[in-house]
Each structure stands twice: as C-alpha cells, then as structure tokens.
Amino acid sequence: MINQKLIFARAYESTIGPQISREERPVFHLTPWVGWMNDPNGFSYYHGQYHLFYQYNPYDVQWDAMHWGHAVSHDLLHWSYLPCALAPDESYDSFGVFSGSALEMRDGRQLLMYTGVRKEGNEKSSKDIQVQCLAVGDGLDYRKLDANPVLDASCLPEGLSRHDFRDPRMWQEQDGSYRCVVGSCDRNRIGALLLFRSDDAMHWAFESVLARNDGSIGTMWECPDFFHLDGKAVVLVSPQDMLPKGFEYHNGNGTVCMIGRFDPERKVFIPESDQAIDYGIDFYAAQTILTPDGRRVMIGWMQNWDTCKQTDYEERKWFGQMSLPRELSIRDGRLYQQPIRELSLYRSRKVAYEQVPLSGEVRLDGIEGRCVELDMRIRPQSADKPYHKFSVRFAEDEKFHSLLSFRPYESLLKIDRKFSGSRRAFIHQRRALVQQRDGEIHLHMILDRFSVEVFVNDGEQVMTATILTRPEARGISFVVDGQAVMDITKYDLFAGE
Ligand code: FRU
C-alpha cells in the first residue's frame, strides 16, 4: 500500500527533476533528483544492479522532513533515478525517515532498515524519539512492516539514549543470520555502537556494545559501518562535535576509521588505531558495500554540516552530492582509498610530461579542463635546488581558482577554495600532514564540475572539497617557490552514455 505522501513526492520529483539539465549536475557524482540530499543510505547490490538511497528532501534545497531518494547504477558512476522509496508517513517516523541500510533477504526480497523519528513534547521543547524500522520491497516499491518499530527504547542497554539511537547498518553473516550496528550515546552524549542480532531479519535483539567512545572522539557517533578487510576488523563512524587533534582531526563533525580486531566471545571490537577517513572539507556519513567481485567500496556525503548552515541556497536547483565510490584496502595498519577502477574506462585525451622543471608560474600545453584526472609526482630538482612550496591551481578563470599546495619542509598539504568565488565565511581551507617517499609527493586529483578529490600517495590519505566556481573555469596552472620537477599525466573524463 503506497501512502499519499509518497505518491506526492514521486509526482513532484518526476515533474521537477527532469527540469535540471545534465550540464547543471556533476558528471560522475550523484546529486538528488531534486531538492536536498545528505547521507548515503541502503548502499547495496540487488538483482544485478547497485542501489543507492539517500537522505532526501525533494521540496527544498535545505534539510527537512527526510525521505529516502533512490538511484541505481551498473558501474557506480552513472546513476538513474528511481521513484522516492520512503516518505515520513507513519506515526513512528512522522518527523523523518532517517539513515539506514539495505540487504537482500534469503527469499530474494530487498530489506531496508531505517531510523524512524517522531517528536515528543510540545512546541516549546520537544525531543526526537528514534526507533529502527523495516520496509520490504522489490527494488522499486517498499512496504513498511506492520510490526514497526522493530527496535525501540526497550532494546537499549541501561544508560543509552532513545533520543540518539540511529543509522542502522545491517549485514548477513556466513551462517545466514543477520546483524546490525546502530549508533547511540549516553547521558553525556558520549557515543557508543550497539550490535543487534536476528535470525530472520524481522525480529531483532540486543547482542552487545560493539564499541564505545572513550570521550576522545567527538560526542554522538553517527552512521556506523563495520566489516572485515585484509585480515582486520574495521569500524567507520561519523562523530559529532569533534575537537581538533594535530592535523588528524578537525573541529566539528568528522569521519573516523578504527582498525582493530573483533572478539567473537564478547562480541566487541578492540581498536588498535584510529585515523581520519578524509582530511579535506566535505566528506561525511560513509557507507560501504561488498561488490560481487569482492571489493569493499565506500561512498560518502560530499558535504560538511557546518558549511550547509552558512550556504546561500538561492538559485540552487539541488544541494548535496555523493563522493566518488572508493575502493578500500588496509596496508601497514592504515586505510587506503582508491577511486573506483571503473573510472578509468572514461578516460580520454591523455597528455603526459616527464621531468618538467617548475619554477615560478608555469602552464603546460594541454593541461586544462574541468572534468579531469591529474596524476602528479613532485620532487626537488636536486639537493642543492630544493623548493619551498608547490601549488596547483584548478577550476581557474581570470577571477577565481581553487588550489592544492604542498610545503615539503613541513610536509603539509593544503586544500584551499578561498579564491573560488565564495562570499561566505565558512571553512575554505584544510591542511593534512602527509608523507614524502624518497623526497617525492604523489597527488592524484579527480576534478568534477563541483568538486575535487585528492588521493595522496596511492590513497594513503584523501582530501575532498566541493568547489563553487562556475564550471566554465577550466584553467590549470602551477606555482613553485624554488625549483621542483614534476611528472604529470592528465586525462579528460567524459561521461559516456
Ligand atoms: C548524519 C545524520 C544521521 C541521520 C541523518 C538525518 O548526517 O545526522 O545521523 O540519520 O543525518 O538526515
């Protein structure tokens, strides 16, 4: 049975969505069909294609009354919109259908688990009541269960909050049983991840506190993911209210990857290390999928909550993009990320230079474009001809540019969109401490119409930012203080059909 709110949302998006032209959207990054998008939800492979749902307000370019938008893809790069999957149309989710996940059940149906939110209290002071709910479907239409919610406050261990209990991430174990991990926090808003178990994916019971924030990593932990990769157990979380820690973590909402092991007796995760997932400005709420060929692929919301609050929304037809899907691996105890390999199928017009001496301002023939891939290796010209700073400017026109700069003595890499045309006082720069290998830094940049993603040293670190400059700004130039030498390869990235 499809409810009125969903019928309305579907009619609205299929009328207004097609009015946004392809040129007004990124080439390879998913945007909402219309309106607002935040977190990726229900990232899954079902009946021969990838499904990606997303936090969605079709009616405005600002966050409100969360629905689940829906898109499908064969290569994780080209997406087709499907009708809105879920609307906030039940008493237990009347304030919003918040983030969650998806899987294929043993009987072949697709199962969505999401957080239903309603308000308790009065107009002056009200609080969220957050519960976990299920909807079953065929890849297009979904029916919320009569038994909803399937997890509520009665399932919570002592001291954990029913106001912050959200973002279930489900998976199926080898033995066929199901698990999910849900974010919550205690009275001091210190985050915890709760593990639940089910035999039939319909009835769920508390199993353990999988991981706890010792108070040093933000407050509430949102959007958890948990999986095994390269012999390690891995937890991804997006903590709220982080404090900075060196160049690793920055203020505000952040992303954290913890690598460790899983104790199957106590059913707890024992972290051995933690690190930022992304060192740039715009990346949050990551979710992963295991592809049919065995790759662990992650996608995140390419935005920053604090920036959204200061953004000018006028003249926008959509707001919010997903990052590129990234292949994950663990090397030497660290998370590595690579742009999904399918992207290389869309390369054209290669231009390559080796050993280009760089000093002062330099432009290279054929190195330009707005939807491009740039692979750069930079080193000093020689021991007695060093450099102090290397910058690459991109999305450049006569007036504006964004840039990436590297100072080898401090080994600091900076992403900077201060000169991109922004007129607001939100975060424009972020720095990361990176490694040089044999005196060389390796930068792999993917530029799309509204974003840049930089993979440093084969994906050891990633910096992501959205950029505002008009897409016609296609210039790329280099500025070096001192004497550097660079190997560079550029490809245009074309959308294909
Ligand atoms: C994270 C988040 C989630 C929540 C959703 C609501 O970005 O706050 O915790 O489910 O967004 O849209």
Assign the CATH superfamily of the largest domain.
Glycosyl hydrolase domain, family 43
CA distance, first residue to last residue = 35 Å
- Strand content bin: over 45%
Q: How many strands appear in the DSSP assignment?
A: 31
Per CATH, the class of the largest domain reads Mainly Beta
Class per helix and strand makeup: mainly beta
- Count of domain modules: 2
CATH topology name of the largest domain, in short, is Tachylectin-2, Chain A
Ligand catalogue: beta-D-fructofuranose
Give the CATH architecture of the largest domain. Answer: 5 Propeller
Largest pleated sheet = 10 strands, antiparallel
Low-confidence stretches: none
What would you call the shape?
Answer: globular
Average pLDDT over all residues: 96
Q: Helicity level, as a percent range?
A: under 10%
Radius of gyration: 23 Å
The count of helical stretches stands at 2
Description:
It is a single chain. By secondary structure, this protein is mainly beta. The protein has 2 domains: 4-339, Tachylectin-2, Chain A; 347-493, Sandwich (Jelly Rolls). It is 3% helix and 51% strand. The strands form 6 sheets. Strands 22, 23, 24, 25, 26, 27, 28, 29, 30 and 31 form a 10-stranded antiparallel β-sheet that branches. It is globular and about 70 Å long. It binds beta-D-fructofuranose. Beta-D-fructofuranose (FRU) binds at residues 38-39, 55, 66, 98-99, 115, 166-167, 222-223, 284-285.
